[in-house]
Amino acid sequence: MSQDVRNECGCCAGIEAATPGLLFNRPGLSAIAYRVGTYQTFRQSLQARLSDSRWTVLRGLRTRDDDDFTIALLDAWAMTGDILTFYQERIANESYLRTATERLSILEQSRLLGYQLGPGLAAATHLAFTLEEHPGLPQQAVQPITLAIGTKVQSVPGPDEQPQTFETIEAIQARTEWNALRAQQTASQLLSWNMTELWVAGTNVGLTVGEVLLIVTDTGSGFEASIRRVTGVMSHLERKSTQVLLATLSSSAGTIAATRPGVYVMRTIASPFGHNAPLQPQYSSGVFQGTFSEWALDASETVTRITLSSRNDKILKDSVVVVEQDDPGTGSRIWTFALVSDVVHRSVARYGIAGNGTQLTLSAGWAKDADSKLDLLRTMTIAAQNEELTPAALPLLYPVYGEELSFDQLVDGLMPGRPLAVSGTRQRIRITAVPRTSKRRRLPLDLPGDVPSPPDLPDVPDIELPPILMLDSGEVVFLTVGDMLSLVAPPMTVAGSVLTALTPSEFGAALTDSAPPLLRLQVMDRDGQIGYVNISAGAIEMLPPSDADDTVSEIAFIDEAIGTSIAQDRDRTTVQLATALVNVYARTTVRINANVAAATHGESVREPLGSGDAAVPYQHFTLRQPPLTYVGADTPDGSTSTLKVYVNEVLWEEVPFFYGHGPTERIYITRRDDEGRTTIRFGDGITGARLPTGQNNVRAEYRKGTGLGGLVRAGQLSLLMSRPLGLKGVLNPEAAEGAEDPESRDDARTNAPLTVLTMERAVSLQDYEDFARTFSGVAKAQAVWVWDGRKRSIFLTVAGPDGEVLTEDGSVITKLKESLRTYGDPFVAFTVKPYRQAWFEIDGTVTIDPEHVSNVVMDAISVDLGQRYAFEARAFGQPVALSEVIAAIQAVPGVVAVDLDRFARTDHTLPAIQPRLIADRPAMGADGVMPAAELLLLDPGSLTQLKAVQ
């Protein structure tokens, strides 16, 4: 304010009135000035009036001393004016939504728009129940029971936590056999003449390497047989079976007069009698001629009869014999498969030798011609004394993942849409080989988003390029033989720049393929870091589960398509899931619990409210046990009350307003005060019916409990508070989500006007964002138009309270989608995705003024940066500039200079200093996937990297 030229010397100061002061407030302020004066200006104005020429009676009052009674009175009135205008300004600020500081003021103003501050939202999860069972007496196991709505479960609190109560919100039928269903472990083993691997039942089958197996298969028109040699025997105790590796003996299958297929081990490998006979000496007129020739076959040696070189009492009638010999015509090896029709043990004298042998009569003849001699028998081998083996079901050695889930048994009673709790350990793999490359400095692939080149390799032939694990954090890890990793996503094949997802069976086949494909695997290393690696399928092997492996679990839903979601064959049930499994499980560890029910946070309360009085309009009652629980729903605001009010045992309906309702409608409204208490108000007989007169005829049923305290961890809900007969235990496979504390005053300032803009419908792009922002369980939302290559659609990125990353198929996003389909434009396609967290870090030195305490200054810097770059202060896709971080630090009192050595995102490695950090917005990627928007936040741990110097 400029000084009056008439009072340049200041001698006339205080002789003019300074009140009322001129008020001016520009738009957009968080507080308004509304005081017409303060103590000083009121005092000055009152004293100025003492010298006013219009008040002649006061001319005699010449003193201005503070101890004068008149001056003291003016001083008291100046103080009174100061106090009145102070509170008047406070009241004025409370009259505007932007400037109000009291939550009650915002609550009352919001009601003028028909908006109530959000009451908070109860967390939601699923509970997997276990029933009592009697393995030894299945007939005495618990019969199917119905778990009613309201089955109560309590959490086991951790440090500084309170126990939380959850109750089921749906009734389910539970069965003992559904406690821990196994995923399909085996498939039917088809016998074939050229099979290279065989699984037999038992772990002590008495097989050794080198033994011969006879395989008989059914062709549909008869039976064929072949023999294979055992090259490996591996017992699997956990599967109670033995894996047998086979090599070729017979080059083709031959017919056999069998009655059924089977597998037989031939315990005896014998030679025919005479195979070791010396050549026949040649005599002429009884004189040895000095030459030898081959013996002619004995007349008793017919093609259906063969004599073994030794006696064998274990060869029985109707057993199988395989005769291997040279073809008399071509000399190639041929095989004859026959049944023994007769067995005779006898002494034999032929070909100049004698001994005991076993003569077998065969159902099929071996080959000889008219010129065949004893040398034909010398090349012959007879496999006999067959012992039948029991083929086992073929174990499935690949992991469990994807949208199809097969059980190891027939499961009755499952219905479309039913939730399943799936748990197990992640499938582990081990690197068994490192591929070799010639004269390469880069990886064989150069895909978009692929890993960077290995650092400077010599340009020489046959360099081993180790597989590279590209972590999500941006770091690179070189892998070597023996490294173990866990799969966290379905494997994919890499062909050029095309990635193709593999089904579980295709992945298993790829590992044994003679031409193994290149795979891209999303994996977790031993330190819990996640990334991906490109590696040949031939360079890895799957590992059996270990006791040290952590168990992971999830909730999956059977698809709701009736008729196609559940299929049954003779041995097992297969279900189609609504969405693919999140984890990749080791098959033998998978357990599926079908006794699953949805549950929400809160404890049921039943209480009498009081007595109705028809003479009282707008009669009201207050619930005694706040806070009232609200649960997620597909309503415009995303929540619905659990309150039910009965009058004379008749249920009355809650409505938002009395306006527009008739005098006979049984309705009521609820209002919440600033302390969370809920008041129920009934009509006046004109808009809404009055309560009928009665004695304690008004009662309420509701649930109490809400807010972020209900976000229990997976496995934390394990105490049964309701225990129907036969119920044994309970667990929550997934962490609870969707909770929200009662709406704060700052959120209400933003959200209350949004309801007027959307009017409970979404038409424009801004409507979709505003609708999602006011939805219960959503703290931030961003809507943008995107192009997916065919059409334009809306892409919504959402975040939960306190930066919670919502589950894409969780309760909040699912209900938001349902609500948008109901209240949005039916012709506009939209996608809802949870946001992606991104972090940046800083490192450097801060020079502190020597006159300031360095610890106090550094704490102030940490608090300021922590608030400036916290979740509440950031927007999706909002970048961060180096200059603004330096300016924020420099603005803290006591800071002389700032020197940052690192300013970069934590998932980027180079360069260390960047002038501007970008947060991604939704955009179609090269792989055809559109990621959600990022929220770039300051890594709190990096604040400790700032060093103070003085």
Automatic annotation (TrEMBL):
It comes from the Bacteria. This is Baseplate assembly protein. It comes from Nitrospira defluvii.
